[in-house]
């Protein structure tokens, strides 16, 4: 607390007006060396904005935050006016406590002052005393240690941190009380064992809560929840404490390219940033299997009806998007296709074949082929040309009917922009970035594994573009803008030139960021965020260090198991982990145990078919059931841990039982090997793990939040779902609130929290996560230099303001708009 001496107190003063009194207090502050004279005007200015009268004849004039540079050193001076001076609204002031505060150091004085305010007789004595030490003693008295007042018994409560630098001094305390007063419920604030009435500014001041202080707000009554929500929002907005409202983040500079002319474009969701120019190549990933023998005619007819509906829905979608993009005339053809699906003559012919024991697929294929051949042989060329439409519709229905098998991804021998329905993780993992300039898929979302791998390969990518994209033909040149999520067709020469220039600028910006990639991400106020990498292959460890990573925050070990004929042996895994440890040369390596299931399937280890694979036997659930997969991996990890700093992390932990079971198996293996213990952590990617984070935090060494899964499970949107995946956005406030909850639980137990989902590598995401208190961000290699550079431009306080603001918003797009 700041000191107050008797020379800071002027007794027996007189003042005709309030202005005189404030000037006298200001003059004393000048004489005591606390402020430059100009600050007195600021004190008068503040008084015009807000009355600084407290109660019992005491006022606390102070200047405006934007004039804090006129404060030479934080301090307080007191003018005693025994005869009183008329203040405002009929109040008479006897004690003027002038405040010059650079930050929160005066809170102790305010807290002591509120003791005086609670005691009118004490205030009266100070107004008339002729001993300055009485005033000094009253204002510097320490609150009795451990003074605990009773809180509410059946209250709802929330615990949160005030913004940095926005402690509960006069103005924020008043703002808090004013919000609380709007509700019927009783509101209490608990800080450091002391309890205050949340509706009384003077009582709040008594707590002396500094900026960043953690308070618990209790509310009891019918509108308690609404009051808590309103107070949370008010705190997030800075409680009227101007400095934080004026300290905005510099705008995020995420450059976008815009074509000069209106081009034919497809819009999807940005999955991997960057811009590429090249020929478009359409990959048709399915071959059709048509079996002649059918099930019962009734069942086969139902298959046909379902397939016709599916084809109709796809055509409706395509019609919509082509109509919007290119107009009614271009879209009309898809209406014609829909009409073909309802051709009764054709459907009767198919049904006849089904009734003789053939499958719907076989019957459909036969009849369509006959009709196509008939049309082609007609003399009328225009009708003959329409055979192609019938063929297209036929294939569409057949795909829905026949069951499709995956075909090998074979690319031309020149670099292309690849357009596909979707790619499997192993197809994407095999992509050669020198042959694939960009990737655009009809399905998928930003958290699907296609997107994750594209980011790690630094290939501009768009996902969730919709089925219309598959109607495209190969083309000589197009432009893919991964950052904007757009594919542009038929660019003009001018557009090609400007896109090329933009690519060049982007490259230069990357070069600049790359130059500082080895420097840590230290914010302007000295706060450091650890930036580590997500990898899936042994060779990527060295590349991660080269990219500026300070370790590996997530090794997705399943990628060592994909793209092979059989599982890697214990020795092969040991060799791979050891290669990474050596490449990291002392930097930490977090090895996540196998996370098979969901969209990651092993070709040689078929899993039972499940209706909801993401909710099924996946991650740790699979490993606990399949010791043949789990034990060799754990043995390999513990053997490798003797070569360098390794931590173990379990995926898909939903319950404490999962964690205990996994630890038990791991500990047995460790003892068998005779290895030293290593840090053990869990992925927080299931909402139940967040809700139980307080319990987990007591036992684990660390948390790493998997926002990709946490988002899909929180929003109940499958990250692979064709229609929903594009909305699986980890910056949704629902997810941010869960992250906030996780960090709070971990902090209470002194455990650290990282994030290894896609949001960590997103420039806005990295800032918000830092503001929420996440201390380690793990991301794909190409994001590292850019995220480090971005974090270095800001302060922890600013990221906290941003994060608190984001927590109060209602939609992911509102959060994204903060950029
Ligand atoms: C996540 O869920 O965010 C995560 C990092 O794990 P994965 O994407 O491999 O499921
Ligand atoms: Mg996950």
From TrEMBL:
Locate the PTS EIIA type-2 domain: which residues? 2-142
Enzyme Commission no: 2.7.3.9
Q: Which GO terms describe its molecular function?
A: kinase activity; metal ion binding; phosphoenolpyruvate-protein phosphotransferase activity
Q: Which UniProt keywords apply?
A: Cytoplasm, Kinase, Magnesium, Metal-binding, Phosphoprotein, Phosphotransferase system, Pyruvate, Sugar transport, Transferase, Transport
Which residues belong to any copy of the HPr domain? 153-242
Keyword Cytoplasm attributed: yes
Name the reaction it catalyses.
Answer: L-histidyl-[protein] + phosphoenolpyruvate = N(pros)-phospho-L-histidyl-[protein] + pyruvate
Q: What class of enzyme is it?
A: transferase
Q: What is its main location?
A: cytoplasm
Top-rank taxon of the source lineage equals Bacteria
Alphabetical GO CC annotations of the entry are: cytoplasm
Give its localization.
Cytoplasm
Give GO BP annotations, semicolon-separated: phosphoenolpyruvate-dependent sugar phosphotransferase system
InterPro entries (alphabetical):
HPr-like, HPr-like_sf, PEP-util_enz_mobile_dom, PEP-utilizing_PTS_enzyme, PEP_util_AS, PEP_util_C, PEP_util_CS, Phosphohistidine_dom_sf
Name its co-factor(s).
Mg(2+)
Q: Which Gene3D superfamilies match?
A: HPr-like (3.30.1340.10), Mannitol-specific EII, Chain A (3.40.930.10), Phosphoenolpyruvate-binding domains (3.20.20.60), Phosphohistidine domain (3.50.30.10), PtsI, HPr-binding domain (1.10.274.10)
Q: Which family does it belong to?
A: Belongs to the PEP-utilizing enzyme family.
Database matches in PANTHER family: PHOSPHOENOLPYRUVATE-PROTEIN PHOSPHOTRANSFERASE (PTHR46244)
- Name of this chain's protein: phosphoenolpyruvate--protein phosphotransferase
């Amino acid at each position: 607390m700041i000191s107050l001496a008797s020379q800071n107190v002027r007794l027996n003063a007189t003042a005709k007006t309030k202005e005189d009194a404030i000037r006298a207090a200001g003059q004393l502050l000048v004489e005591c060396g606390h402020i430059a004279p100009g600050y007195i005007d600021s004190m008068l200015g503040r008084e015009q904005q807000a009355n600084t009268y407290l109660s019992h004849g005491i006022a606390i004039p102070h200047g405006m935050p934007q004039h804090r540079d006129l404060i030479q050193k934080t301090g307080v001076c007191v003018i005693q006016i025994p005869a009183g001076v008329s203040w405002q609204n009929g109040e008479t002031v006897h004690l003027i406590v002038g405040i010059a505060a650079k930050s929160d150091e005066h809170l102790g004085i305010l807290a002591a002052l509120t003791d005086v305010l609670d005691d009118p007789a004490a205030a009266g004595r100070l107004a008339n005393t002729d001993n300055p030490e009485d005033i000094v003693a009253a204002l510097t008295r320490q609150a009795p240690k451990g003074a605990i007042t009773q809180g509410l018994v059946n209250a709802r409560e929330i615990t949160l941190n005030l913004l940095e630098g926005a402690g509960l001094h006069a103005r924020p305390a008043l703002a808090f009380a004013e919000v609380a007063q709007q509700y019927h419920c009783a509101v209490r604030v608990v800080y450091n064992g002391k309890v205050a009435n949340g509706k009384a500014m003077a009582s709040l001041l008594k707590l002396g809560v500094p900026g960043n202080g953690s308070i618990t707000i209790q509310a009891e009554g019918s509108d308690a929840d609404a009051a808590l929500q309103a107070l949370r929002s008010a705190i997030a907005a800075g409680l009227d404490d101007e400095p934080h409202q004026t300290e905005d983040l510099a705008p995020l500079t995420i450059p976008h390219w815009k074509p000069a002319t209106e081009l034919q474009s497809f819009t999807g969701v940005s999955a991997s940033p960057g811009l590429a120019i090249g020929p478009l190549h359409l990959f048709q990933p399915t071959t059709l299997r048509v079996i002649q023998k059918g099930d019962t005619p009734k069942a086969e007819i139902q298959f046909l009806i379902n397939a016709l509906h599916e084809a109709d829905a796809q055509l409706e979608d395509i019609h919509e998007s082509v109509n919007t993009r290119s107009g009614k005339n271009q879209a009309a053809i898809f209406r014609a296709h829909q009409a073909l699906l309802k051709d009764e003559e054709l459907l009767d012919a198919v049904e006849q074949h089904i009734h003789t024991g053939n499958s719907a697929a076989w019957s459909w294929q036969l009849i369509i082929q006959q009709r196509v051949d008939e049309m082609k042989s007609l003399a009328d060329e225009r009708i003959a040309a329409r055979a192609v439409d019938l063929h297209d519709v036929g294939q569409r229905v057949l795909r829905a009917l026949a069951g499709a098998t995956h075909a090998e991804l074979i690319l031309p021998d020149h670099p292309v922009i690849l357009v596909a329905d979707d790619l499997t993780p192993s197809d994407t993992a095999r992509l050669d970035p020198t042959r694939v300039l960009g990737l655009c898929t009809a399905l998928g979302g930003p958290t699907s594994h296609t997107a994750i791998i594209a980011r790690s390969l630094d290939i501009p990518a768009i996902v969730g573009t919709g089925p219309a994209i598959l109607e495209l033909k190969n083309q000589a040149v197009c432009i893919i803008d991964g950052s904007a999520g757009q594919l542009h067709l038929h660019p003009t020469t001018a557009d090609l030139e400007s896109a090329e220039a933009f690519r060049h600028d982007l490259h230069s910006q990357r070069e600049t960021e790359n130059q500082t990639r080895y420097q840590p991400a230290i914010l302007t106020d000295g706060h450091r965020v650890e930036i580590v990498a997500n990898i899936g292959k042994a060779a990527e460890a060295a590349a991660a260090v080269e990219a500026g990573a300070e370790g590996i925050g997530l090794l997705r070990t399943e990628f060592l198991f994909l793209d092979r004929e059989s599982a890697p042996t214990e020795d092969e895994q040991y060799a791979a982990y050891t290669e990474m440890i050596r490449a990291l040369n002392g930097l930490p390596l977090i090895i996540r145990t196998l996370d098979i299931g969901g969209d990651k399937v092993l070709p040689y280890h078929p899993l039972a078919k499940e209706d909801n694979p993401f909710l099924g036997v996946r991650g740790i659930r699979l490993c606990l059931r399949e010791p043949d997969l789990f034990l060799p991996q754990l043995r390999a990890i513990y053997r490798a841990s003797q070569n360098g700093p390794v931590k173990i992390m379990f995926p898909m932990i939903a319950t404490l039982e999962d964690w205990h079971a996994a630890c038990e198996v791991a500990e047995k293996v460790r003892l068998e090997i005779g290895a030293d213990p290593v840090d053990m952590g869990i992925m927080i990617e299931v909402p139940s793990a967040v809700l139980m984070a307080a319990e987990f935090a007591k036992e684990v060494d660390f948390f790493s939040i998997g926002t990709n899964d946490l988002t899909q499970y929180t929003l109940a949107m499958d990250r692979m779902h064709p229609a929903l995946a594009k909305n699986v956005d980890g910056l949704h406030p629902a997810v941010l609130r869960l992250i906030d909850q996780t960090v709070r639980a971990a902090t209470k137990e002194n455990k650290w929290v990282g994030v290894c989902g896609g949001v960590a590598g997103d420039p806005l995401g990295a800032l918000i996560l830092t503001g929420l208190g996440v201390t380690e961000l793990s991301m794909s290699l190409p994001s590292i230099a850019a995220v480090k550079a971005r974090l270095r431009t800001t302060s922890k306080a600013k990221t906290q303001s941003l994060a608190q603001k984001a927590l109060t918003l209602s939609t992911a797009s509102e959060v994204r708009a903060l950029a």
